[in-house]
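Tokens in:
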């Protein structure tokens, strides 16, 4: 009986301390965390490193008083206006978070990541989105199981070379930072599958970027200042999604079509005047490309012509060339019975310099939507109205002198044929 008195006193003192230091919502979150191993503090009032330390200490005390609970796997302190998260991973809380696999510290006021966070060797997901980070700790390379790192909306100007030492990283999101260059070591990732660098200040990519080829499947480089892509970029043969929107590219590498797994290509808002030509005598990877590419968008460039090889894209279903300088569509229908004629369903050609629509456009047997608004068309061939698959044609903003009579009687007076 006497032996139980100290334990009861400690329990009473611990419970009293928790009531004083923690709000009701936080106490409730701590109790729930003991049951499912997930501590979510978004709807609590942590707001300071001291309160965060008290919360994690409370978990440790409760685990001691009620052994047998689940180990902590997930911790979220999102939206707490924290400027310091050093209690996470510190000596006092390390045992509580020893098996932590996911940490969400997004939407705070962090200007740095404490080294204590990098000591959590079981961590697989780290979300530091929407903070005030200007750099990452060098010790970040000592997190062997980290697979997903999200750093969107920070102020990072440079990446530490040690980042590439995180061998297991698969998803890396660095959108909306202030990066002007990537270190050469960036190309040493062994398992990187998804890379997003939207809204930075990159003017070039590392010459060895092609070393990411075996695993990289998605890359988003939208909204940077790129003027060209290195030749090794064409070695990224596993790349399925590529976004180059809103840069200053004037051309693509000559062997660009070697990206044999590409399915979605977004290149709008650049200064590209000519697309690279693919030849049947070229690399075998080019032929493979035509079996996978489904969407191409080069809206808002300076294209004056298309390479004839475009008509060999066997799976291309949507082609967007709005806002270029195209004067002819001959490349799309240069020969009869080409792969593109069976796959293309949507063709956008608004705001170009087209003066005529070739009758051979009827070879596009699957075409349902044809956008020709704001060109220089004075006539629309009557034969096109007989295309069995064509459902919508946009013609407004052209100097048309007449429309096909049959279509006009069906209500196409405004230049849109439904």
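Residues out:
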């Amino acid at each position: 009986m006497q032996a139980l008195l100290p334990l009861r006193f400690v329990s009473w003192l611990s419970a009293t301390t928790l009531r004083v230091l923690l709000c009701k919502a936080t106490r409730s979150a701590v109790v729930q965390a003991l049951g499912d191993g997930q501590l979510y503090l978004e709807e609590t009032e942590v707001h300071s490193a001291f309160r965060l330390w008290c919360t994690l200490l409370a978990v440790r005390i409760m685990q001691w008083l009620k052994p047998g609970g689940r180990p902590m796997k997930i911790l979220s302190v999102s939206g707490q206006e924290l400027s310091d998260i050093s209690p996470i991973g510190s000596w006092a809380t390390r045992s509580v978070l020893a098996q932590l696999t996911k940490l969400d510290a997004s939407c705070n006021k962090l200007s740095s990541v404490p080294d204590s966070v990098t000591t959590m060797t079981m961590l697989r997901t780290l979300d530091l989105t929407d903070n005030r980070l200007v750099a990452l700790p060098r010790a970040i390379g000592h997190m062997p199981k980290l697979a997903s790192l999200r750093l969107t909306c920070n102020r990072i100007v440079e990446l530490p070379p040690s980042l590439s030492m995180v061998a297991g990283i698969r998803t890396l999101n660095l959108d909306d930072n202030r990066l002007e260059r990537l270190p050469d070591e960036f190309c040493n990732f062994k398992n990187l599958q998804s890379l997003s660098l939207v809204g930075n200040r990159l003017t070039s990519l590392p010459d060895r970027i092609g070393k990411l080829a075996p695993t990289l499947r998605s890359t988003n480089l939208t909204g940077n200042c790129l003027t060209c892509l290195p030749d090794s970029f064409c070695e990224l043969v596993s790349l399925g999604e590529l976004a180059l929107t809103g840069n200053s590219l004037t051309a693509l590498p000559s062997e660009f079509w070697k990206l044999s797994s590409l399915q979605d290509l977004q290149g709008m808002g650049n200064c590209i005047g000519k697309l690279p030509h693919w030849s049947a005598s070229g690399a075998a990877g080019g032929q493979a490309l035509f079996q996978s590419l489904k969407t191409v968008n080069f809206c808002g460039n300076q294209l004056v012509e298309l390479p004839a090889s475009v008509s060999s894209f066997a799976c291309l279903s949507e082609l967007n060339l709005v806002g270029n300088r195209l004067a002819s569509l001959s490349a799309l229908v240069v020969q009869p019975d080409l792969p593109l004629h069976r796959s293309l369903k949507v063709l956008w050609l608004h705001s170009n310099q087209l003066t005529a629509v070739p009758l051979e456009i009827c070879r596009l047997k699957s075409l349902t939507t044809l956008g020709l608004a704001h060109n220089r068309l004075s006539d629309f061939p009557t034969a096109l109205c007989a295309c069995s698959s064509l459902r919508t044609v946009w013609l407004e903003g052209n100097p048309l002198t007449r429309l096909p009579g049959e279509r006009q009687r069906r209500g196409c007076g405004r230049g849109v044929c439904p």
